[in-house]
Write a structure and sequence with these properties.
Layout: E1 6-8, E2 11-13, H1 19-24, H2 27-35, H3 40-45, H4 47-53, H5 56-59, H6 67-99
Antiparallel strand pairs: 1-2
Length: about 100
């Protein structure tokens, strides 16, 4: 271990804590790091991060999940997050229209 970082497969895991490391970061890496505040991009493109997010009981069976099923679950989650406000708005306008 170096400070608060953990050496992980030749790289560091735990963030950038020195100005030298921040200076080596490219603009593309900076933008992607700031876009991935919630970790959703990491879970989408990294199978390891996706598995580590699940409960320990589920991790035992995650090796049987194919990449297609993983991407399908991610896609369904995104569609549900985008579609829920639209459905709520639509139902609200229909209900208020009938109540008037």
């Amino acid at each position: 271990m170096q400070g608060d970082q953990i050496i992980f497969h030749g790289g560091t895991f735990g963030g950038i804590d020195t100005p030298e490391a921040a200076a080596q970061e490219t603009p593309k890496q900076t933008i992607l790091r700031w876009l991935d505040v919630t970790g959703s991009l990491t879970r989408t493109y990294s199978r390891r991060a996706w598995i580590m997010e699940s409960d320990p009981d589920q991790r035992a069976y995650m090796f049987m999940t194919t990449e297609y099923e993983r991407w399908l679950m991610t896609f369904c989650s995104v569609v549900a997050c985008i579609g829920t406000p639209i459905v709520v708005w639509y139902m609200r306008t229909k209900i208020t229209m009938f109540c008037l």
